[in-house]
Structure formats: C-alpha cells, structure tokens
Fold this sequence. Notes:
Low-confidence stretches: none
Structural class: alpha+beta
Radius of gyration: 25 Å
Number of strands: 35
Amino acid sequence: MSKFEIKDTFLLDGEPFKIISGAIHYFRVVPEYWQDRLEKLKNMGCNTVETYIPWNITEPKKGEFCFDGMCDFEKFLDIAHKLGLYAIVRPSPYICAEWELGGLPSWLFAIPGFEPRCKNEIYYQNVRDYYKVILPRLAKHQIDNGGNIILMQIENEYGYYGSDMSYLQFLADLMRESGITVPFVTSDGPWGKMFMKGQLDGVLPTGNFGSHALLLFANMKRMMKKTGNRGPLMCMEFWIGWFDAWGSKEHKKSKLKRNIKDLNYMLKKGNVNFYMFHGGTNFGFMNGSNYFTKLTPDTTSYDYDAPLSEDGRITEKYNVFKDIIRKYRDFEEIPLSTKIEYKAYGVVKAKERVKLFDILDTLAEAKTSEGEKLLGMEATGQDYGYILYKTTVEKNSETLRIEDGNDRIIEYKNKVPMATLFDSETSKNVALPLVSGDELSLLVENLGRVNFADKIPFQKKGICGRVLADEKPLAKWTYYNLNLDKNQISKIDWSKAKEKDLSSGEITTPSFTRFTLNVEKPCDTFLDFSGWGKGCIFLNGFNLGRYWEIGPQKRLYVPAPLLKTGANEIIVFETEGKVGETIEFFDEHKLE
C-alpha cells in the first residue's frame, strides 16, 4: 500500500510529489464519457483528478440513496485509478460548484429548526446519517487502502460563510471516525479574513483564485504562518475560466496570457488544480444561482471556458497548458479509447402540442389548501421544477400582491397571462382586475437555488406566504407539483392536443410540444432553440436542461449516449407561449 503525507511538501511514499490536477465533475458528464474525459486529463499532463460529491443527487430523498448512472462516483474513481490518476475528493455536505443549493438537498429545508453549515443538531444528525453511508464507500478508495484518493476536503470555502470552528471540527472528526485516513485540506479565497476563518488546526489550507498567483501565494504563506499551519502551497481552484448566467451579455472567457503567467508561477512554487479542466453540463434542474444585487441563475452549459469544452473537445487552452506542464513533468500520452462523432441532424417538425391547463389533472395530483398561507415546494415534498397554484375568486378586486414568492411567477386570469414577476418583483403590487368567478392561476418556477454566500439558508421555493387581492387574502387554493421528472413527463395526455395549436407564434399559455428525431447512428449533437421563449427540454424522458432566449447559451448539448438508434422522443415545455413549429440540430455549440 502507498502512503501520502503532508510535510513541507507533499510526499508520496516518502518522495516529493507535485500535484497537477484537473477538476471533472462526474455528475456533469454522462458515464459513457468519463473514460474519454479522464484520458484527456492524463494526456494534458495532469497526475490527479479532483471532484466534488453532491449530497442532493446522492441522497435525493431522506434515506434513499442513488449510486447508479451519473451518481456512481466509485466507478468514476475506478476508471481514474486504472489510468494511473490520483484523486482529490471534496465530499458534501456543501460544495458550492454553481450546483443547485451548493449540493445541499432541499428536503432539509422542510425540517423545522434546521439551519445549514453551523452547529445545529438537526443538521448534524442528517450529516451523520449521510456520511455513515458515503464515507465507507470513499474510504476503500484511499491510497493507503490500495485506491487512488490522496486528499479529502473538509466543507468548502467556509471562510466566505461563517467562522464556527466547532462545525469544521465536527466534520473532520466524523470523517476520521468513518475511516478517512488520508490528509485533509480546506480551500478558501486567499484575501484575508476569508482565508483565516476557513482554517482548521492540523488541516492544510489551500487557496481558490484565478490570477495574480505571485501575490496570492505570498498572502497564503503569510497567513498560514500566522496560524501555525505549515505545508506546501496549493491553488485548489485555479479559475482558468468562469461560468455563465442567463442574461449575461456574452459567454465568459479568461485571458489566456494571464493564465499562462500564473500557471508557470504556480508550478514553480507549488501545486495546482485546474477549475475546471472539463466543466460539463447542468442537466435537469441542477444549475445553481448567485444572489448579490439580484438573482442570477446559471445556464445549462457549464462550459467554463475550460481546456476541454462542454462536449469534451480539445481547445487551444488545452494545448497551451500541456506544453507548460511538460516543462515541469515528464509524461507519456495514451491513445483515446472513445470514438466521439458529431452530426447535424437538421430540422425536425413538431408532431403535436398540448396546453398545460388542458392536462393539469392527469399530469399531477390536485391538492387543496384551505388556509390563507400557501405551501411552498419543500413543504409539499417537491424539490425542483415548477409549482402551480389555482383558486376561484369570490370578490371583485383591482390589485394583487404575493408574499414570499420565489423565483419567477406568471399570473393568469382565466388561463390568460396577465403579468410575469421575477425575483424582487414578486412582492410588488400588480394592477390585476378580478371579478367574482374568475380563475386565478400562478405558475412559479424554481430557477435554481442560490449556491453561495449568506442567502443559502433562505432558499425555499414556490409561494410560502399569502396572496392578497386588494390587500385581502385569497383562500381555498388548489396546487399542482410539476417536478417534471421522467414519470410525470410520461403522463402527458397527448389526446388533448389540438391541430390549431401547432402553428408557430403566441399561444399564450404554457405547453408541451412533441417531436420525433429518427437516428440511424447516435452522435453528439446540439439542439438549437431559436424561436422559442423559455422552458426545458426532454429527450427520451431525460431532462437536457433549461433554455431561455435571453442567452448567452443558444443550444443545448446532446451527448450521443442519450440517443438511441431509431425514434427518439423530444418534448419541449415552453412557459412563455413563444413556440416554434420546428427545432434544429447542429454539429457545433453556440455560446455567444
């Protein structure tokens, strides 16, 4: 068995070892492509792969665990091990990662008295239950157990969030009790208080930054000395790109000349983990959001301007980094074992379209609430997607106001859209004349829970307060949980589709449109959603992710393993009523 230690430098079996790592999130890549992405990591010269483990997909419901498909982190580690790659694992509870709620499962927020990322016994007990299951699985992959894990991280960028050292110590103790023997690290921004607050005695602090390596390594060294921490310098997240939010002016890219200068310095003076080496895709509703002055939901693409593009293509940045790494480490390239082809499948015409309001009662169970205060997603057992509230108005009114509504709400009177409210707008008084007998419907979308900073504890979605007409509360609500999982999508009643609704243009209400893509040979492709407004797209029941005409993303990546030979069903759920008669598949991405 091998041994990995932290002294003044990293030591592998007593010999100095320079970590040159790259981040690949197995949960953002279809499993059929893990081998390809890891081979390309090795061929760029990296000796290590780094990944998070998101709690929310690993334990999607309390006590129900998933270790199959895109959740099979053990298979991912095994492939890396066979390729001769070491691994750094950053397990939950919190990961950030621009992932929904930073990886925390939303069901935690339905538990009374719960508080995240602090000394809270309810939180502690759920972490214990979770770690009891996942840590033994990780323990057997440690280097001193014959595996390839050399480091594990405690929490993630905690210095940005809190300063409760008892919480960090709780996690460290729990990990040790569960069989974790490899050295621990923390990671924080190396700018002062954040770095100091995130450190824990006996644990190597590492830094997360994207430029000015000389200055920030010096900062880290000074602050480590001040707290008595010793050991090698490491940039745990070398941000060589950035993520996009819906509505961004353009796809974000790094300055390669700056990257080159910083990488050379880091390899001379310390160790590095590229964040990201390969970004991948926020399939489904798993994108996170940020909230500083306003809510900014992340795009489906997590391309990150990484050395490998979202679809795994080698970029100029990849080749430049490979040449730099070769100056510091000898390595041999291996042949790539996965054949990936691209195809523009062209234009596909819509077959049928059905309006959401026509199939509500077959799509989801109608649940009723007599009280004035509505129930949010978490209180009704829903995690992601949309929730629709409906009531019949009993008195005439002129204005409508919603208390505690998150994130985006479309208000309908008798199934006709009257207003769309987003973020802070949701609490505004809206001029919306209603008369007795009118049907009021509110479609609420969870755009992705905030994954960073102090708004994390306040991420309940749907409507958690009252709805006031002329400042008087409405009651007797019916609500529908529209999580739009594979099972619910299969319940769409296409017999309610109407031929006249197939023409492009405005049909005003939310709808599902079905297409059939016939494929002779599955290849990677990109689904262009030009002409559509906003929503999400499903391929053979798999949620490819959100689309939104505001960009900068203009196409959704479709990996070949999600397609099958023959007929493939594509369903577009459009919420704005802006529909097209066709969709089109291209062989190139479009991130503007």
